[in-house]
Design a protein that fits this description.
With 246 residues, this protein is α/β, with parallel strands linked by helices. Helix 3 packs across helix 4, helix 3 runs parallel beside helix 5 and helix 5 packs parallel to helix 6. It is globular. The N and C termini lie far apart (43 Å). The structure holds adenosine-5'-diphosphate and magnesium ion. One of its GO terms (cellular component) is plasma membrane.
């Protein structure tokens, strides 16, 4: 039997775009309850790696197992798996022509996971949790960037995912709105959600993550606890990266 604690298993993942090899053999595991911060220079393959985890990018070679199911196997229905993998993007990706509440209800209703009534109740619950119930009937354009991103996070929660992938969730925000989004993420982490977070917020990585992964030039160049990675970086490359971002 597979270890029940392992949610995602990545085996020798390679990804090329044309001639350019972006991921050069990544192997790792994500365990239930892990909060993994992925750090590294721009263009090193962080987004490509994250997007590969739910097959938004198709690996060139290697395997990704989600709860024991090989996502790279042609016979796997990726849409079923994606229901269990939430994703939050830098640019929120809310549907502009739908109300906030409709955005949250969309996936559970459309995929037949909940009735309209159930989804409506869930949406109210989630909006209450982030203090935005009064925005239920507003449209995304009427919200601040921080509010939109908090909605995007609870929208992913509406599907009761087993893991949520975040790709630089605060990078598009005005500085004064970063804190409110990070605090929602911190609450999620404290509630036990499994999270993989590409971030430039080193404070968050240090405080909230249990593992920090430094990706450089398409490989995991160094990995460890926040204490290890920030307190005692081994490689010169990581030391240099940290000296630039801290
Ligand atoms: P990061 O998120 O670490 O900044 P990315 O994973 O977005 O890096 O990109 C890694 C490299 O892959 C970059 O050189 C980028 O230009 C390239 N790349 C990413 N997506 C594509 C794509 N769809 N087509 C071609 N090249 C891509
Ligand atoms: Mg990126």
């Amino acid at each position: 039997m597979k270890d029940n604690n392992v949610i995602l298993e990545v085996k020798d993942l390679h990804k090329s775009f044309g001639e350019q090899e972006v991921l050069k053999g990544i192997s790792t595991e994500v365990n239930r309850g892990d909060v993994i911060a992925i750090i590294g220079p721009s263009g090193c393959g962080k987004s490509t790696f994250l997007r590969s985890l739910n097959l938004l990018e198709t690996p060139t070679s290697g395997q990704i197992l989600f709860e024991g199911t090989d996502l790279t196997d042609k016979s796997t229905d990726i849409n079923v798996t994606r229901q269990k993998i939430g994703m939050v993007f830098q640019q929120f990706n809310l549907f502009a022509n739908m109300t906030i509440k409709a955005n949250i209800m969309l996936a559970p209703v459309k995929l037949g996971v909940m009735t309209k009534d159930e989804a409506s109740k869930k949406a109210d619950e989630l909006l209450t949790r982030i203090g935005l119930l009064d925005k239920a009937d507003a449209y995304p354009a009427q919200l601040s960037g921080g509010q939109k991103q908090r909605v995007a996070i609870i929208r992913s929660l509406a599907m009761n995912p087993d893991v949520i992938l975040f790709d630089e969730p605060t990078s598009a925000l005005d500085p004064e709105m970063v804190g409110e989004v990070l605090s929602v993420m911190k609450e999620l982490a404290e509630a036990g959600m499994t999270m993989v977070v590409v971030t430039h917020e080193m404070g968050f990585a240090r405080e909230v993550a249990n593992r920090v992964m430094f990706i450089n030039e398409g490989t995991i160049a160094e990995e460890g606890t926040p204490e290890e990675v920030f307190g005692a970086p081994k490689s010169e490359r990581l030391q240099e990266f940290l000296s630039r971002v801290l």
